[in-house]
Amino acid sequence: MKIAVLGGGQLAMMLAGAGKPLGDSFTFLDPNPESCAASSGELLVAEYTDLAVLHSLAENSVVATFEFENVAVDAVINLQQQLPVHPPVKALSVCQDRLPEKLLLQQLGIPLAEFMEVNTRADLLEAVANIGYPAVLKTRRLGYDGKGQAALRGAEDMERAWHKLGDYELVLEAFVPFDAECSIIAARDQNGCVVCWPLSRNIHLQGVLAVSMAPWFADELQQQAEDLVNRLLEHFDYVGVITLELFLKDGQLLANEIAPRVHNSGHLSIEGSSCSQFENHIRAISGREVKTPVAKGFSLMLNWLGSIPEHGELVNVDGVYLHNYGKQPRAGRKLGHTTLCAADREGLLQLLDLFRNLEHPSISAAMASLN
Ligand code: AMP
C-alpha cells in the first residue's frame, strides 16, 4: 500500500522501517531537504500548505498520516478531502492547543494538574492566586519538549516569566512534584480493537526525553493508564497510535500531554516488543488489524541528544541496538537512540553498566535512576 506521511523526521523513517516489510511504500512531505526519512522512500520537499504538492501526494497514495502534531490542520483537512487520513484531524487540532486539550481531559474525567487560561497580566495574577506556587506557565501552542515554558517558583519569577511569554496565549498549571514520569502508548484499528504497550517510565532532562524503560510498573498502574487512554481513543473514534504522557504521584496518574502519534518513549518497542508502535500504527491506518504487543523481557532506551557517544564494540553485544538517524549534529538535536534489551532487570542493569564509561547525560540519568 502507498502511504503518505506529513513530516520526514526520524518518526517517519521508523514508520517506513516497519511498513516496508509489510509491502508498503512511503512518500514523505517535509520542507527540509535534509529530512532523514529521505532514504526510506520518496521525499517531497515543500511547505505543508502547498496545495499542488498535497494534491500530488494524495494522487499517489492510498492513505495519509502525520508524524508530528504541529502539522498545519488546514493541510490535513485539505488532504482528507482527497484520501483517508488517520489519526483523526480533530485529535490533531485538540493536541495543538493546551487549553482545549486540558478541557477535554477534564471532560473525560482524566485527572490532571490544576490549570487556568492566561491572556493578560491580570489573568496571570489571578491564576497564581488560585493555583499558588510552584507553577508552570506554558504557551498554548507550539510548545513541546519543554519549549515555551517558564517555571514560577515564587513571586520573584513572575516578571521574568511574563517578559518571556506574555505575548502568547498561555495556560498556568500547578507544578506536579511527581514521583516519576511515564507514558502509555496505545493503538486502535479500524474495527475499534485497542492494544497497549507496557506503561514506560520516562526521565526528562531540561524538558526533553532522555531515557525510557519498560515494562516498569505494576499491573494495577497499567490498568489505570489503559483506562485513561481508552477514554481518549473512544472519544475520538481514533485510528492509529496515540500516546498519553503522565505524571505518577502517590500511586495516582495525572495526565500531562496527549501526542496523537508514535512517540519517542515507544522506540524501545522496536526490539523490546513482539510488535512495535510503528508497525501497529501502519497496520491500523492501512486497515489491517493491530497485533497484541508482547514485551520481550525488559528494555531501556537511551536518547542521544546533541551527540551520539562512540559505541565501539558495544554494537556487537547481544541486546544492544543502536539507531543513528543520520542527522547533522546540533546542540540538543535528537540524533539517535540505543535500546538495551534483556530477559530480566538484572540483565538490563548489566547491559547499562557497559555504557558506564561513555559520557552522555542520558547515560548518567539512567544510571542515577537505576542505582
Ligand atoms: P511538556 O512539554 O509540557 O511535556 O513538558 C516537558 C517536561 O517538563 C515534562 O515532561 C516534565 O518533566 C516537565 N513539566 C512540564 N509540566 C510540568 C508540571 N506541571 N509539573 C512538573 N513538571 C512539569
List the defining traits of the structure above.
single chain, 371 residues, alpha+beta, Rossmann fold, Dna Ligase, domain 1, D-amino Acid Aminotransferase, Chain A, domain 1, 3 domains, four-stranded parallel beta sheet, 12 helices, 27% strand, binds adenosine monophosphate
**Which segments are poorly predicted (pLDDT under 50) over 5 or more consecutive residues?**
none
Question: What is the CATH superfamily label of the largest domain?
Answer: ATP-grasp fold, B domain
Number of helices: 12
Question: What small molecules does this complex bind?
Answer: adenosine monophosphate
Mean pLDDT: 96
What is the SS-derived class?
Answer: alpha+beta
End-to-end distance, in Å?
46 Å
As a percent range, the share of strand residues is 25-35%
Task: Note down, in words, how this protein is organized.
- With 371 residues, the protein is of the alpha+beta class.
- It has three domains: 2-85, Rossmann fold; 114-174, ATP-grasp fold, A domain (Dna Ligase, domain 1, 2-Layer Sandwich), CATH 3.30.1490.20; 180-370, 2-Layer Sandwich (D-amino Acid Aminotransferase, Chain A, domain 1), CATH 3.30.470.20.
- It has twelve helices and 17 strands.
- It has helices at 10-19, 51-59, 73-80, 89-95, 98-107, 121-131, 158-165, 219-236, 269-272, 277-285, 345-353, 361-370, and strands spanning 2-6, 25-30, 42-45, 63-66, 115-118, 135-139, 149-152, 170-174, 180-188, 194-196, 200-205, 208-214, 240-249, 252-259, 298-305, 320-324, 334-342.
- The strands form three sheets. Strands 9, 10, 11, 12, 13, 14, 15, 16 and 17 form a nine-stranded antiparallel sheet that branches. The chain has a four-stranded parallel sheet with strand order 3-2-1-4, sandwiched between helices. A four-stranded antiparallel sheet has the order 5-8-6-7, sandwiched between helices.
- α1 crosses α10.
- The longest helix is centred in the middle third of the chain and has 18 residues, at 219-236.
- The N and C termini lie far apart (46 Å).
- The model has no long low-confidence stretch (mean pLDDT 96).
- It binds adenosine monophosphate.
- Residues 113, 136, 143-146, 173, 175-176, 181, 204, 207, 245, 256-257 line the site of adenosine monophosphate (AMP).
